[in-house]
Amino acid sequence: MCGRFAQVQTRADYLDVLASELEVASGQDNVPIGRYNVAPGTRVILLNQRDGKIYMDPVNWGYGPDWWIEMKRQPVINARVETAATSRMFKPLWNHGRALVMADGWYEWKKDKQDAKIKQPYFIYHESKRPIFFAAIGRYHPDEAVPLDDDGFVIVTAASDSGLLDIHDRRPVVLPPAAAREWMDPETTPERAEELAIGAATPTDDFAWHPVGKSVGNIRNDNVDLIKPISNP
Questions:
Q1: Distances (CA, A) of 213 to 18, 109, 193, 220
Q2: Cβ 79 vs Cβ 137: under 8 Å
Q3: 3-state class of 84 per DSSP?
Q4: Residues contacting 69, CB < 8 A, separation 6+
Q5: Alpha-helix residue ranges (DSSP H) falling in 35-97
Q6: Does the structure show a pLDDT above 80 at 162?
Q7: Do residues 57 and 45 make contact, with C-beta atoms less than 8 angstroms apart?
Q8: Dist CA 182 CA 178 (whole Å)
């Protein structure tokens, strides 16, 4: 799963890696976003495409449709790639609400083999240390002055393999730039989007990771020290 991530660099840095030829409708600046501990329930800059342009909209991380909210259930933050395209909850978002979360890496907690209550956090990132893009799906109304109750997004996840499986059995679907551009294109069919999410995702062997301090577990902590490796996990 993906329950925390870092969105640190400037908007321009991410767009340079995305390498889209489309016009960017939202404002760009050279000020780092600087979020080292992005948590569910907060508004996150989401890349999406509409009207032939790229937009960067702040959208709440977490989603639940009307019927879900009426059941008094908490918003969900992830959607499994194996079922999202066909599920009652996520199919409408898959078909018409595909977007990207730009990030520098994400955190996972590895359970201790002797005591499952003890968990060691790890920071996971592309081995090149370049920005990455999570496949996301959501529902939001950018023209509304106040976000609607059921606005929000989730990050699409897949099963882990290789060495990453030792840390956690799920991981966010990370799309390389070309696949990311196609994913968020409204003209891409739901079927093609499924092919991208399953077959074009960045393989786990392209990622690196290291243990980090447990202070990342507190959402009040948000600084560069959170992603720094520690020597004695």
A1: 31, 11, 36, 14
A2: yes
A3: coil
A4: 149, 150
A5: 66-70, 91-96
A6: no
A7: yes
A8: 6
Q: Which of 53-57, 166-170, 227-231 has the lowest mean pLDDT?
A: 166-170
Task: Return d(Cα 171, Cα 161) in angstroms, integer.
Answer: 9
Q: What pLDDT is recorded for position 1?
A: 63
Residues forming the active site: 2, 108
Strand partners, 103: 132
Give the separation between CA 173 and CA 19, rounded to whole angstroms.
19
Report in angstroms the alpha-carbon separations of 180 from 18, 46, 184, 202, 215: 8, 13, 6, 11, 32
Computed on alpha carbons and rounded to an integer, the radius of gyration of the chain in Å comes to: 17
Q: How far apart are CA 135 and CA 121, in angstroms?
A: 23
* 35 neighbors 134 (Cβ within 8 angstroms): no
Q: What is the pLDDT of residues 31-61, one digit of tens each?
A: 999 999 999 999 999 999 999 999 999 999 9
Distances, alpha carbon 32 to alpha carbons 28, 78, 145, 151, in Å: 11, 26, 25, 26
| Strand, helix or coil for residue 206 | helix
Tell me the three state secondary structure of residue 134.
strand
Report how far residue 64's alpha carbon sits from residue 87's, in angstroms, rounded to the nearest whole number.
13
70-100: pLDDT as tens digits: 898 999 999 999 999 999 999 999 999 999 9
